[in-house]
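>> received
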Amino acid sequence: MIRWLAVLALVVAAAVGWVLALGTSALWWWAAAPLAVLAATGLHDLLQRRHSILRNYPVLGHARFAMERLRPEIQQYFIESNTGGTPFDRETRDLVYDRAKGNHGEEPFGTERDVNAVGYEFVAHSMRARTKPDVRPTVRLGGPECTQPYDIALLNVSAMSFGSLSGNAIEALNGGAALGGFAHDTGEGSISRYHRRRGGDLIWEIGSGYFGCRTEDGGFDAARFAERAVDPQVKAISIKVSQGAKPGLGGLLPGAKVNDEIAEARGVAIGTTVVSPPTHRAFDTPLGLVDYVSELRRLSGGKPVGFKLCIGSRREFLAVCKAMVERDSTPDFIIVDG
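>> returned
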């Protein structure tokens, strides 16, 4: 009852303000207009049935939603310390910003971190310190069956698809890979025009949707794969068996997001909702996976081929290992997803 009386009081006050503004002085508009807005807001809040907070606390309830929207900024600018943010604190973000602008981003001596805390990591001193190597540290991808091994950097850009990320983001990530001398995993959304503009090394990820190398019914197209895999910018092929973010449900890209650029990259029709099935159609057994790795290596001209999986069962992975032994064939790398 009180809320109705409060809104009624606003309506009456607004009406009185309008009468005074029209009958006496235009200065009353400064009071009448805000009161009218508050009265209209209160009536709307009382009559709507979507938010119980606004219905129970007309007008005042909006303060709750305003504070909810402002909460991240309040946390960042007034509460968070330089070292307290997660997953990346302010010091780390500042370092990234400096390097993105071309600055070196070195930190001076001294720290705000608790160096005595359990788990604090540091580099121990040595009486025989090593000189900086002339070449960047790498790991070679490529086993006995690989004829085009690739020396990959220790830190690289992990799989994020064009469609999930914008064209500008993909181009920026690939440009960073080119400048830093490391690899850029395309994600299962295939290779777009934005992956090619900066010339960074690519790891082409093949998911269950076979984007960029699919038939009209969504199967694997060996000829289309071979045509694109021989591109010199593609350094390795990664088969996505599973990932932690999609536990057995596959993926979906709504048709509203599938514009001409995404359709071109993925090999689908514009405006079509794109589904990544939970499992692959090209293989359905551990032996089939090992054979598929060998087939992609052959079609790509001997480039490194591996697979990514999120290990949910020890027995399943051991079955893949047994298949490798039986076929006497191994992938060139394995990516274990979180």
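>> The chain is about 40% helix and 10% strand.
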